[in-house]
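Ticket #4471: complex job returned nothing on first submit. Input attached below:
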Amino acid sequence: MFFNFPLHVISNLRQTVLLLNTVLLIAALVVVELVYSEVPTPKRRELRSFYPLFIVLSGLLIYAVYVQRNGL
Amino acid sequence: MAPTKQFATNVAGRSRRFKTSVGRGGQALKPLGRHGYIWLLTIGLLVATQATLIWAPHVGIYINAAALAGLTAVAILQDKARTVAISMAIIPVATMITASVVPHTNFGQTTVFDVSLLLLALLYRYIFTLEHPLSNTKLSAKGYGMLLPLMLIVGQLVGLIGYAFLRNQYPYNGYSLPLVAVAAVVFAFAEEMLLRGLIQQQGSRLFHPAMAALGTAILYVFLSLDHATMLTLPTAIVMGCVLSFVYYKKQNLILTTTINAAAKLTYIGLVAGFILRG
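Support reply: We reran it on our side without changes. The output follows.
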């Protein structure tokens, strides 16, 4: 009936998720750099589609830093 | 034309007709080519993610990250499948957001998850329709007048089925009913905006619309499953199939959102009237 968020042991996994997020963000940026560095400028407009994902992942990275600094 | 050559041409033509068949409105359908396999792969990735998240969260969270990486890779490497892959990547991203923020209650988790889905889906729907505006999604006033009441009835029937199976599994105990009712409408809007408005719609542009509808229904079922009870399964199957079928036929989000919201509100109303009060 409702979307069910399935992580019932969620609090134990937060550190793992934040770490995975950082790894994914770096990996995605590296792949995008490798794929698009030799692509002509007009075709690079395709990259706009990825901006929201990168913004969200960057936001989570900032949140991870905040969590680490404050010992949450 | 030489008889042998003509025979070869006829066979090739028949073979092509057999492979493509004829679809809705007499349009020739695309065969299950590379994009069809990409569609199956991406659906499979997300289904595997949800299944492992439900039954083995410690493994599922890695599969979720792998699914996000895989979908991003498909989006980077496959031009034509980019929009579908990015639309699907919203689900693992919303999972990461929810798992990072750690809401303490079921209601909080669903709210964070669905609001993340909604915001990203709205943003991407706007981005994707900048260059390719949607067409044929609006109905006339008469069409709405005829179909909206029908959709309300369909939604109430689905809500009744949900109540029959899940009357003892109400997930939002302890919250005020008006709050849950408003949230249910937002949840319905988020679900429809992502699954029908983005994934099914972008999928229909790549291959057979019926396959896009089937894939979206499967996704809906796995997103709705609960680790505590398998009684969510029949309701999710009915709801997923009904919503995907209506969007497949009408390509109209208002109709599917009406069914979804009506089903949720009927379920909440019946639980409030017969279970919580009792």
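Confidence is low (pLDDT under 50) at residues 1-27 of chain B. Closing as resolved unless it happens again.
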